[in-house]
Amino acid sequence: MKEYIVDTHTHTLASGHAYNTILEMAKAADDKGIKILGITDHSKAMPGASGDFYFMNLKAMDREAYGVELLLGVELNIIDYNGKVDLPTKYIKELDIVIASLHTPCLKPGTKEENTNTLIKCCENPYIHIIGHPDDGNYEIDMEQVVLAAKKTGTLLELNNNSIVFRMNARENDKKMLKLCKEHNVPIIIGSDAHAAGKVGENSNALELVKEVDFPEELILNYYPDKLKEYLSKNW
User: Fold this and answer.
1) Distance between CA atoms of 40 and 73, rounded to whole angstroms?
2) In terms of Cα–Cα distance, which of 69, 56, 87, 74 is closest to 25?
3) Which of 22, 40, 104, 175 has the most neighbouring CB atoms within 10 Å?
4) Contacts with 141 (C-beta within 8 Å, 6 or more apart), sequence order
5) Long-range contacts: 167-173, Cβ < 8 Å, 24+?
6) What structural domains and CATH numbers belong to the chain?
7) In terms of pTM, does the model score above 0.70?
8) How far apart are CA 134 and CA 172, in angstroms?
């Protein structure tokens, strides 16, 4: 089995509801054998999150700490049903890694068609690399349309380790997503969604589920950092 060395989805104090610094998260990653760590704090529509200037100034940070490569980016909040997000493109395009997600504090659930459309529009955004937790049962979607949009645009769909336990109907929605990704040969990325250092690299729920549905290891990019970086650089 390949070595699991990437965690693309974590949060720091800058998100407003997480509890460690970038350096503390990097140290935790090193302790757990994670070699590439995504720092993806929430953008401003999330209550308590940082404003535009925080993300603009991430260029000031080193991209390595404790021997861990840092991908400094953002988890964008989707704020309408046409894929609009809450950070200007001029800042988004300078970041290392960009996730876009639906969150109930930022956009109320729409119809199945509206929810599906906004995720497809995010896939079509050339600066968005990953659709975060598309399994949230609060937002009913046509999963096959989203999987096909991800395939067409080279966007990664996230299997969120936290979702499987905490988001409504996520386990069943993730099983559907994984089966469709397997059918259509669409790669995924597992994210811990860690909001504290002790959760960095946590993947047990996700790995249990991929085993349950016999999902191909070669489509899990946490094992293939070079392939992941191809996805992260697709638009430049």
Assistant:
1) 5
2) 69
3) 40
4) 112, 115, 116, 119, 134
5) 167/133, 167/135, 167/136, 167/137, 167/138, 168/136, 168/137, 168/138, 169/135, 169/137, 170/133, 170/135, 170/136, 170/137, 171/135, 171/209, 173/134, 173/135, 173/136, 173/137, 173/143
6) 6-232 (3.20.20.140)
7) yes
8) 12
